[in-house]
Amino acid sequence: MTQFDGDTAIVTGASTGIGESTAKRFAEDGASVVVADVNVDGGEGTVADIEDAGGAATFVETDVSDPDDVAAMVETAVDTYGGLDVAFNNAGIEGESRPTADQSIENWDRVVGVDLRGVFLCLRAEIPAMLEDGGGAIVNTSSVAGQVGFPQISPYVASKFGVIGLTKNAALEYSGEDIRVNAVCPGVIDTPMVRRSTSGDGDSVVDRAVAATPMGRLGHPDEVADAVVWLCSEDASYVTGETLTVDGGFTS
Ligand code: NAI
Questions:
Q1: Which keywords annotate this record (predicted)?
Q2: Per-residue pLDDT for 196 more than 90?
Q3: 238 is catalytic
Q4: CATH, residue 231
Q5: Ligand 1 neighbours (beta carbon < 6 A)
């Protein structure tokens, strides 16, 4: 018997990085997992890895900024596995690096559309399914960039601050109905997103991040997955509206 036996979990952005690790952790702990992402090959890879390890998972091609896709994602969870208990709203993009006045409206709309609107659309679709199922637990991915500013990426920072606000509001609204809503704030984690990034002047984000992190290394996606799984577990039964920072001391 493992802690999520019989439960259904949705993980967005589960084709790579933090989402992939967390989807696998939920499956190891007994959940049936809906793997939702725009990246089809990566998502099918996550499902194959889960099935090879003896777990249950289904891939749904989902753009979290599209309300129809998000509705279909939740429908798949309910139709395939009989309900919804856990959701990790994690899909995100960083967008282009430029000072605020040089940011294009297109980049603003694209980043806010995925990173903030996407989390809102997921909550809006997931909460009714959880209410039907007697409650649940949700974690949204914010960032240390949801706690302090980071030059060059204002659409991302604004979205990640917004995710914390959305998290607190949903927690307040549904705590009486057994739905807990929390956020996780990763520091710099070794994922494809970070490996792709350069700072505005072209320097490696990885080198700068390691230098700025008291623990002197990047985080591993599994270290964020462990925090997310804990927040969704019975061990966190009195924790809601909280933001859990996993950053190797970066914001200390
Ligand atoms: P990643 O790039 O490895 O994973 C992001 C996943 O989201 C990808 O599989 C991508 O295909 C998917 N995705 C992108 N746009 C999507 C959309 N419109 N609909 C559905 N899926 C979409 O990056 P990583 O690092 O695993 O990021 C996961 C989350 O963690 C993001 O929200 C990111 O902002 C956040 N984060 C990451 C940090 C890091 O250092 N890696 C630090 C703080 C936060």
A1: Oxidoreductase
A2: no
A3: no
A4: 3.40.50.720
A5: 12-13, 15-19, 37-39, 42, 62-65, 90-93, 114, 141, 143, 186, 188-189, 191-194
Residue 115 lies in a domain: yes
Identify the DSSP state of 147: T
Percent of the chain with pLDDT over 90: 92
In a domain, 88, yes or no: yes
Q: Which two tokens stand for residue 19?
A: 């989402």
Tell me if the pTM is above 0.95.
yes
Question: What's the CA-to-centroid distance between 57 and ligand 1, angstroms?
Answer: 19
What pLDDT score was predicted for residue 201? 56
Which of 89, 97, 79, 102 has its CA nearest to residue 13? 89
Question: How many domains are there within the chain?
Answer: 1
- The answer to whether position 198 is within a domain reads no
Asked if the model's pLDDT at residue 202 lies above 70, the reply is no
**Whose C-alpha lies nearest to ligand 1, atom 21?**
37
Measured in Å, residue 14 CA sits from the centre of ligand 1 at 8
ipTM at complex level: 0.99
Range of the domain at 154: 8-189+220-245
**Position 32, amino acid:** S
Q: How large is the angle between the packed helices 105-112 and 154-174, nearest 10 degrees?
A: 30
> Cβ(194)–Cβ(188) under 8 Å?
yes
